[in-house]
Specification:
It is a single chain. By secondary structure, this protein is an all-alpha fold. It has 14 helices and no strands. Helix 5 packs antiparallel against helix 9, helix 5 packs parallel to helix 10 and helix 11 packs parallel to helix 13.
């Protein structure tokens, strides 16, 4: 485009030609400035303006076609996948059921279809205390009762990309390409070749290829729109009042709202699980503390029992029955504190010591007397 903007004007060409006629033997490179030399170089090229315009279109056309093709593909593939989706119709069915339940007994009950834009209003419908929304209830219902529908939006290909397409812009760009290729082909046809080796023949070939690409683009646009039209009509969309991207904006917005609520539910679930896990850990900790205390109680009981046993052997006459009975009762009380715990080796030892001690009290004997009997010589 820079070269096109700097081509000499008619009066400038006339001035240069007059100078050349007046100075046939002059060397322009030595006698005139660079701009005039540029003019002298190109004035002999026939239809230079048309040639440059055709070349410029050739350079820009390919990128223009590439820019328009993806949006058309997004609309087409999103429409096909929406038409094939099993989950999205079920999502709408559940929403309709919820609406019929809420509107039971009114003229709005028992409906079988809703305008598609209704799904975007679930977030705005709040509970009486304004702490929850219909979308929250709907999301919880899906999570708890229909977990297979959680990833329903994944079935719609290029949903976000299709929602960002501007159909008006696509139509405008295609219209401009059609207008430009027609204009450029007419220019190319009017250009006279300098000789058989004129490289402009390649430009004409390029333009023919661009014409084919643009025609294919027009067909692609028609196909994409027809696929979208079929699926849109199946969902009750008013075709004349709706652009292709508008349908996908509604669905994409609802998908984002659903995912946001799903994230909140999952976070609350994780918090509840952490709280439950902490409660379990606290219970285990308390249980361990109880067991630890029980072991300490058993040990204390055993120590008391052993001290009672040793006290029974002191002095010539031994301990008084009242004292011995009191200490034994204390030992029994200490041992009974652990009765509810499983029997352990320490408990068995304590019971053995207690049994021996009680036996000693019943017979009235003492450890000293037993030693005397053991020292009595054996009679053969």
């Amino acid at each position: 485009s820079t070269l096109l903007n700097n081509l000499p004007k008619d009066e400038e060409i006339t001035t240069v030609q007059n100078w050349l006629s007046s100075n046939p033997n002059a060397n322009p490179k030595d006698e005139v400035e660079r701009p005039e030399n540029f003019f002298i170089d190109i004035i002999d090229i026939p239809s230079v303006n048309d040639r440059l315009y055709c070349w410029k279109f050739h350079l820009s056309c390919e990128s223009g076609v590439k820019d328009i093709s993806p949006p058309l593909q997004f609309i087409k593939e999103a429409s096909i996948s929406l038409q094939k989706s099993d989950s999205f119709p079920k999502i709408l069915e559940i929403i309709i059921c919820i609406g019929n339940f809420i509107n039971f007994g009114t003229r709005l009950a028992d409906i079988f279809a809703i305008p598609l834009e209704t799904i975007g209003k679930l977030r705005e419908t709040k509970s009486s205390n304004n702490k929850s929304s219909l979308l929250s209830y709907f999301t919880s219902l899906i999570v708890n009762n229909y977990p297979k529908l959680i990833n329903w939006s994944d079935e719609i290909a290029h949903l976000k990309a299709a929602s960002e397409v501007s159909w008006d812009s696509v139509e405008t760009q295609i219209g401009e390409l059609i207008s430009e290729i027609d204009k450029t082909l007419k220019m190319a046809a009017s250009v006279k070749l300098v000789n058989k080796g004129d490289t402009f023949t390649k430009v004409k070939s390029y333009l023919s290829d661009h014409k084919r690409d643009i025609d294919e683009l027009v067909v692609s646009k028609t196909n994409s729109y027809n696929v979208w039209k079929n699926v849109a009509e199946s969902y009750g969309v008013e075709i004349d009042k709706t652009k292709p991207e508008s349908l996908f904006k509604i669905i994409y917005g609802f998908a984002n709202d659903f995912k946001t609520e799903l994230k909140v539910i999952n976070e609350e679930k994780e918090k509840a699980e952490e709280k439950e896990k902490k409660a379990v850990m606290d219970n285990k900790r308390n249980e361990l503390e109880s067991r630890k205390q029980a072991v300490l109680d058993r040990k204390r009981g055993v120590d008391l029992a052993r001290r009672d046993g040793k006290g029974g052997g002191l002095g010539a006459a031994g301990p008084s029955p009242a004292r011995g009975t009191s200490m034994t009762a204390a030992s029994l009380i200490a041992l009974k504190k652990a009765d509810k715990q499983p029997e352990t080796k320490t408990e068995k030892e304590a019971e053995s010591i207690l049994t021996n001690m009680l036996g000693s009290l019943v017979t009235g004997g003492s450890r000293a007397e037993k030693k005397k009997r053991l020292k009595k010589p054996i009679q053969y």
